[in-house]
Design brief:
435 residues, alpha+beta, six-stranded antiparallel beta sheet, three-stranded antiparallel beta sheet, 12 strands, 17% strand, globular, YcaO-like_dom
């Protein structure tokens, strides 16, 4: 069956929405500075419903966007809320407590886990610790996508909202990377893999300052071309780059330069998809929404954000400022690489796409694992939630103190892609601009 991008029934998730339901509210946002037809909806997982079980973050906000389809934007916003909920510690799944040494041969190998440099770990404010194979931590079961066998995964890598953590569990970057929900379980896994691969590309591009090739305009769809013209007429310049890594999953990186906006002077977006045109459109849509996010914060709060830069979005606001514009010169000042026409598209069929991407990961010596995060509430409306864990890839961290600069992937990937490789002391010193 061919994958459908737009579901047939856009009210199928309404069973999650009520004052006491998983999604406590969903509504359209009033936006400024966005193209006509751009629908933006916000959803909340909040009190007094299931949010009482969420642990350290008791209020989650998600969003959905679409062109000329408010009903689709609303549907996506609800699905995004469900995804955030699945990432919290609400499933009650079976876990064991053991050391990696005790689980030798039965767990995802610790030597694959991303790691920071000694200097990063030594910083007094570094929030994570090196993984200790002799420390007892919690593990949950995942599915090895190559062998089809069960494998134990550290619970903190399987569930970023894990509660009651012990110090030994603070070795991982706790973000929503790899989480996805979908009405098709296989498509959920595909999209989870896409996100891990996209964020690997984001991290490598930024830290290694890769001079990416621009995407050949002939590869872009009509909507993207219209959006680029819309931006141009408002003194915004769009640059779309091919950030496809050695894994061959089409990935686009977008930079929008707004010379007359001092706070959102440079904003970025990125996406992976089945083909480069799809990835480019999603990356541009993501970047177009960033100025709304930046301008939402009052100017008076910016000094506090700059001082901490610990929450999601803090570095985006900081790097958006005109004073940091030169940090993007490695991308914007031209490259001798010819425009890219992209890789061959991935299959539309979810099972075929899954097989193709898993095969590429296996050939690269990587071990992808899928963890089922489907709660009862999500199953009741036909959703499957998963988290795809691929520790061999480079994490994208929004905390500037943890960049995992000792992970081999950070240096292997540019070499495999034909770029020069920066040494640890030469890596990009600027914070990650991607939210």
């Amino acid at each position: 069956m061919r994958h459908r991008e737009i579901p047939e029934d856009l009210t199928s998730l309404d069973g999650l929405v009520s004052s006491y339901g998983l999604v406590s509210s969903v509504g359209a946002l009033r936006t400024t500075g966005l193209p006509t037809g751009f629908s933006y909806w916000k959803s909340e997982v909040g009190a007094p419903g299931p949010a009482r079980r969420l642990g350290r973050l008791e209020h989650l906000v998600s969003s959905g966007q679409a062109w000329d389809r408010p009903d689709l934007a609303r549907f996506i916003a609800i699905a995004e809320a469900a995804e955030r909920y699945a990432g919290r510690d609400v499933l009650g799944e079976h876990r064991i407590r053991a050391t990696a040494e005790e689980l030798n041969g039965e767990c995802l190998e610790p030597e694959r886990y991303p790691r920071c440099s000694e200097a990063e770990y030594a910083h007094p404010d570094c929030p994570i610790v090196p993984f200790d194979a002799r420390a007892s931590i919690r593990w949950t079961s995942g599915l090895d996508l190559i062998t089809g066998q069960s494998v134990w995964v550290p619970a903190v890598m399987a569930c970023y909202g894990l509660t009651e953590t012990v110090p030994a569990e603070h070795f991982s970057c706790r973000m929503s990377t790899g989480f996805a929900v979908h009405t098709d379980p296989v498509e959920a896994v595909v999209r989870g893999m896409f996100e891990v691969i996209e964020r690997d590309a984001n991290a490598v591009v930024w830290l290694q300052r890769l001079a990416l090739p621009v995407i050949d305009p002939a590869c872009l769809g009509e909507r993207v071309r219209r959006l680029i013209e819309w931006c141009r007429s408002r003194f915004k310049k769009v640059r779309l780059f091919d950030a496809t890594s050695d894994l061959g999953v089409p990935t686009a990186y977008c930079v929008i330069s707004a010379e007359y906006d001092r706070r959102a002077h440079r904003v970025v977006g990125a996406s992976a998809g089945r083909d480069l045109a799809e990835a480019a459109q999603k990356a541009l849509q993501e970047a177009l929404g960033v100025p709304q996010f930046i301008h939402f914060v009052d100017r008076a709060d910016e000094p506090a954000i700059e001082a901490q830069m610990r929450a999601v979005g803090d570095t985006t606001r900081y790097m958006g400022r005109a004073e940091q514009a030169h940090a993007f010169d490695f991308l914007l000042n031209g490259t001798d690489r010819p425009p890219s026409t992209g890789q061959p598209p991935l299959p539309a069929d979810p099972s075929e796409a899954l097989s193709e991407v898993v095969g590429r990961l296996a050939n690269a010596g990587m071990r992808p694992v899928a963890v089922d995060r489907t709660t009862r509430e999500l199953a009741d409306v036909g959703l499957t939630a998963v988290n795809v864990v691929i520790p061999d890839l480079q994490p994208m961290s929004v905390e500037h103190l943890i960049r995992f600069t000792a992970h081999p992937r950070l240096y292997d990937a540019p070499a495999r892609m034909g770029y020069r490789v920066l040494r640890p002391t030469e890596l990009n010193p600027w914070p990650q601009p991607m939210a």
